[in-house]
Design goal:
Length: 370
């Protein structure tokens, strides 16, 4: 099913009712996805990409939607994820407002948006919904599953919940569980949204929207997505020209403040605040130790894979390099042949979106050898 011109999304209906890990069900739910390339006759060349918290399924441009995708430089003919060889699928997370059923969707039981009546969301639910979409496309086993950031955690859930459904895995800047620092940052982001009076316990409208809360949440996120090294290199202590400054007491004075403000303003109305809260909390809850009697290593050892590549960045403060090492060790203990790639990109957690040459070399090399 196509969603109209300039929109390449297709929609996979989920079983109704769709049971959620933490209780509750969704009825008449769906996830949005996009595809690139052709599925082989043997249906053995599928690559699934699971995204970070805010991206849509539009990872790259295609005939129906020529707009640049969030991983445009990585996906396409002759690129690292080569669509002349691979059939590439990107699924928008369940709970995201980019076409999948989320807190802003209409609850069929009431005819009103779910808002805070949406069931508690886990990354296991995100993984199970993505698995339904893959089966919907007639694919029993993925050639490779790629998970970026939050999507890397969803990918671990996918593999532990659906043994044998993935031959190879690329883990990008992620974690087997949220560390206290990441939980603390996300907690502040959620608090900023909830304390905005316009949030109104989730009952906001487009014309009475929690702009300030979403803006602060986004700024906090952006600060952690990059590294101190990059902030220093890009902005130093450069001040804005007098005419660019804010007249308010304690207003914008430094270039870095203006940069964060611009980032926040571009983001604020592009993501539903309640959906942000749900996905943020789902990221905090995820823990591979649940599958290993309290041990992350034992949980990871339950994943059945032939090959994996784990990529991390030394400057990532949100998902530190030692967490990538944990994933690599666990998958090796499970019997997979694992390549571990530690990059020194200055961009921090967002490096996978920015340092395309290094990520292309790693990911393209791994996929080329499959």
């Amino acid at each position: 099913m196509n969603a109209g011109s300039g929109d390449a999304r297709r929609y996979c209906p989920l079983p109704s009712p769709f049971a959620m890990k933490r209780g509750g069900t969704l009825r008449e739910a769906r996830v949005a996805y996009e595809t690139w390339g052709e599925l082989s006759a043997a249906r053995d060349n599928a690559v699934l990409i699971l995204t970070g918290l805010s991206p849509s399924a539009h990872a790259a441009s295609n005939a129906e939607d020529p707009a640049e995708g969030w991983w445009e430089a990585m996906i396409g003919p002759g690129k690292a994820i080569d669509t002349s060889r691979w059939f590439v699928i990107c699924v928008n997370s369940l709970g995201s407002d980019k076409g999948s059923t989320c807190a802003a969707s209409i609850n069929p039981a009431t005819g009103e948006p779910y808002r805070l009546d949406f069931p508690e969301l886990s990354l296991e639910d995100v993984a199970n919904a993505a698995h339904v979409a893959v089966k919907h496309l007639g694919i029993d086993q993925l050639a490779c599953l790629i998970g970026c950031s939050m999507g890397g955690m969803s990918a671990l859930a996918y593999m532990v919940l659906h043994p044998g459904s993935v031959r190879a895995h690329i883990s990008v800047d992620t974690a087997p569980q949220a560390q206290p620092f990441a939980i603390a940052i996300r907690s502040l982001q959620r608090e900023a949204i909830r304390l905005d009076p316009h949030w109104n316990h989730g009952q906001y409208a487009d014309d009475d929207y929690p702009v300030d809360g979403m803006s602060i949440a986004r700024k906090l996120g952006v600060i952690t997505y990059r590294s101190a090294m990059e902030w220093n290199g890009r902005f130093a202590r450069i001040r804005l020209d007098p005419e660019q400054r804010d007249d308010n007491p304690f207003g914008l004075e430094f270039e870095v403040e203006s940069y964060l403000e611009g980032h926040a303003q571009r983001f604020v109305h592009t993501f539903d605040p309640n959906s942000y809260l749900y996905l943020s909390r789902a990221s905090d809850w995820f823990d591979m130790a649940e599958y290993g009697n309290g041990s992350v290593l034992e949980g990871l050892k339950r994943i059945q894979l032939a090959k994996a590549m784990v990529i991390g960045v030394s400057t990532d403060i949100l998902f530190p390099l030692e967490q990538q090492e944990q994933i690599a060790d666990g998958l090796r203990a499970a019997g997979a042949a694992v390549d571990f790639v530690a990059l020194n990109s200055p961009q921090g957690h967002d490096a996978f979106l920015v340092d395309i040459p290094n990520y292309s070399r790693a990911i393209g090399g791994f996929l080329g050898a499959l």
